[in-house]
User: Fold these one by one.
Assistant:
Number 1:
Amino acid sequence: MTNPIPSAGETTIIGLPAVNIPMTSNGDRPLTQDDLDTIAKLRPGSALLISTRGAVSGSRYLLDEDEVNVGRDPHADILLDDSTVSRNHAVFKRIGTLFQVEDAGSLNGTYVNRQRVESATLNNGDEIMIGKFRLVFFSPATLNA
């Protein structure tokens, strides 16, 4: 059994200058030390999604291409296999060092921090809800923002 991760707002030192990493606030799955180590090693121009709810809870998805498609289609870059997810649900787009999520005309919508969005620029710790799945976003470009 692992020890719980400190609450949001505490500083975590991981071999680099201290960075403020928001913890998941929904309590579904707290970040592990391994998650924090992986976040600290992200390269500029990349980002990481960590699943905190759904059948894939604990899974990590590296965003290191200009576009990453998410959906129920078996050919999606990130496959979320559930009837609450559209075949082509959303697209993560890299614009410079920032990332955006865009809804791809899904039936159930794409949510960022519990707000339905057509498109949104993502910040460190943002929670993206796609169907019943919740993914938390992390990027080195926004670690100290």
Number 2:
Amino acid sequence: MIGLIVIALVVTLLLKGYYPQAILFMGGVVLLTCTAIFGWGDLLNAKQTTNFIGFDIFKVFSTGFSSRIAGLGLTLMAIGGFSRYMEHVGASAALFSVFEKPLKLIKSPYVLLGASFLVSQIMVIFVPSHAGLALLLMVTLYPILIRSGVSPMSALGVIGCAQFVDVGPGSGNAILAARTAGVDVSEYFVYYQLPLFVGVVIILTFVHMFVQRWWDKREGWVFDPNNIQTLAGTKNTEQDKKVPKIYAILPIIPLF
């Protein structure tokens, strides 16, 4: 019940526009404090504890922050910096210019939307980081989808759903599940995750195509080719035309 209350308060404050990091931090503090007060578990083992609840909570946070900043944090900063630089040099525009003619053969942008979701699900297996994959998709798939007539919200809907399930031998949750079940993580992925994953992905591909189309119609989305640069968040058209097409290789290097 306490967990549900904290989650409800966190969601409410986030929807009201409060600073997300501070709200999530406070929610964590409340849950850790309740854990210590009601004796639901030890925050730290006997060797690590400071024997004072306030210091123990602080130590849990400091330990967690240091490990995540050194590992996942640096990875996300590297990917974020790479994505920003690709936008700055016009590599995303170059990527679209290479695929522009083949993409014109696809009459409906929602077919392209479904295909993009399939591509993102292949990438999920190799890029287990939710935020990292989202940044890579924003610099590769997003500009292509926007320039092909897909609304920004539909494009973001697909990118946001890319990591709808933790799957693959690189996923921390999959590794933990395999270890708990006493099987090799590769065997767990191929025989237990993959059959279910493939079926769900096929269903969600069509769900995305029809649901995003329905929402775009409801919100009155009309594709305006003259407004592409603003929607895609890139430079003006004249500058994009001067970008060498060889730059199209740059955004997809991390994918390989």
Number 3:
Amino acid sequence: MTDGSSTREGVADIGVVGMAVMGSNLARNLAHHGHTVAIYNRTTSRTDEVMQQHGSEGDFVPAHDVDAFVASLKKPRTAIIMVQAGRGTDAVIDQLAERFEPGDIIVDGGNANFHDTIRREQDLKARDLNFVGAGISGGEEGALNGPSIMPGGSREAYTTLGPILESIAAEAEGEPCVTHIGTDGAGHFVKMVHNGIEYADMQLIAESYDLLRRIAGHEPDAIADVFAAWNEGDLESYLIEITAEVLRQKDAATGKPFVDVVVDQAGSKGTGVWTVQNAVGLGVPVSGIGEAVFARAVSSKPDQRAAVQGREHGRPEPVAKPDGFEDDVRAALYASKVVAYAQGFDVIIAGAKEFGWDIDKGAVAKIWRAGCIIRARFLNRIVEAYERDPELPTLLADEYFAKAVADGEAAWRRVVSAAALSGVPVPGFASALSYYDSLSSTRLPAALIQGQRDFFGAHTYHRVDREGTFHTLWSGDRSEIESAGSGH
């Protein structure tokens, strides 16, 4: 360990650029696991601060400029960038690329847009440099104590990088929560979907809380007890666990429940939006994730909310709490959660096909079992589902999940009905149920939509009773002709 900038050359196993909380915690995690870690931050005082506070925790090689940082790295050099996504990341990549040599590895550990990762990987490959976009989940605690890591990039890069990442990742049932996801942008794509599922999971939990409070009439402490009990069963997860803790928290200034003094406007950093945007482009319905994104957007429109509330002439009274309502909400939460994860994995499958990635869905579920925000017992069931059938068309078709949803279906419908009658918004529960009903229905009104499209735009249609593509002469004698169109 040294204070200040170091002149030690070729000694660091890996380097970290960016000493904000996530970067410094990741560097400390690496050092805790026996790696010699080079650290660098554009503002040198931050590097000095990390050394003063944590320099005794392992072997760090601090640098006050990029040249010293690069010189301190063993070959092939490996550096992880933990700076703000966008231009900041590009600037650091350019600095390193100018100094790195063929075979060296640059890792972006931020929440980058996977399209940027694809571009960066191609640019650096042309310079014989390896670029790895690695999704890192688990927040500040995960970065320090063991995150779930989703690296993309080349197999060659993973040969060098993999053992290092495996040494610092969280562990689930003795297995490190890291795997090579696929080439170029695959890692950041899967991290994006992870965050989209996280949005849906959080929204469903929030709706459960709202139902238990507004219809069941429970106060936050009692609802915390309900969530704590749920965390002992199939719903066991990090998000359920912390929900109970948040609900038990009291505001020091007022003595009120913490949840009652927080402004009810939810923020967003964009990855949920990206998931929805890319899913729409891939033709994958992600209504559960979409409604979670939209719910945050609605919450953050105070002027619109106030304007509508000002026009109100009385809200519905909550229905009398049905018997077993808490159990119904639990069943509805589980069923809706299945839908959200099913839709998320549908996006991964479609993305892999579109961008030529070979992604092991079961391996993805495995590395989400610990370290990440959506870690849950539930994920073992997903691993088992893909072990039974790697080509499963949807998680809802797996025997375990099909039974779980069927067992909870009546409760799910009771909850959505009670919410509608009581004026309690449940966009997550309701959209998940509609999605399930859409897949379950033998006939959908899309047939009428195809008729409308053919009427106003000659978009053609297919028939149920014979092959071919057809068009009705709506402005003529309304006879049907066979067409060369696609029917879509």
Number 4:
Amino acid sequence: DEVYVCDDPALRHFSIEPYAAVFEAFIAQTRPAAILVGATAVGRQLAPRVAARLKTGLTADCTVLEMNENTDLVQIRPAFGGNIMAEIVTPNHRPQMATVRYKVMNAPERSPHSSGQIVSLHVDPTRLKGGVQALEAAPKPEEKYIESADVLVVAGRGVKKEEDLAMLEELASLLGGQLACTRPMAEAGWIDAKRQVGLSGRTVRPKLIITCGVSGAIQFVAGMDHAETIVAINRDEKAPIFRVAHYGLVGDLYEIVPHLLGQLRERKEAAVCANV
């Protein structure tokens, strides 16, 4: 409904002290009951510093949020290695603060009609000076992140050799998606940690996710269970992943995936011939 804007040359590049000062000034002016911050590289720096200044609580990496009638924000996140879901409230201090992972919530549909109000926020320039000065910022090469992929193929412990990932890479490519992995695959160095799905990796919400040889530990499931369609391939019919999967294929991924690849290749070839 309202967007608060603080525009000053000192804020051109991110610097923790000036940005925290602006955040603090915004809170002093608006006095909100609750504040949500994106659990990004910037948000994870900014939120704890502001919470410390305000002497209030902060819950990191929330996966579920609920609001009680008395405005107590119930901040829910996995704890003890993901074995329980902790419900945390800050009843005696305001604002209540939490960082929230990307893709935990659905984005609202874009409205063609403009609404809301832009409010200018003035902060004393002396508060925008910090001990560190950013001289320039160099643009990073554009990357493809698994959070933005519509289709993901996830490699789990069931993959026996690093060379076998090429089979799953091809499956992802034929489906127009990306290859992702579980924590053991990232720790083994087989796949970049940026492609890890789960609480210690990335939270994803693709239209289709195919897990291959993934058991379905709660830490992994919490990072992908909001996907539109979940297909699980595992030879253990009692694997926890089947509890959240929409479609389950009980069998060896080394038999099932090549069969899927064969069908997808045939369809691709038929589509190419039809367009010639």
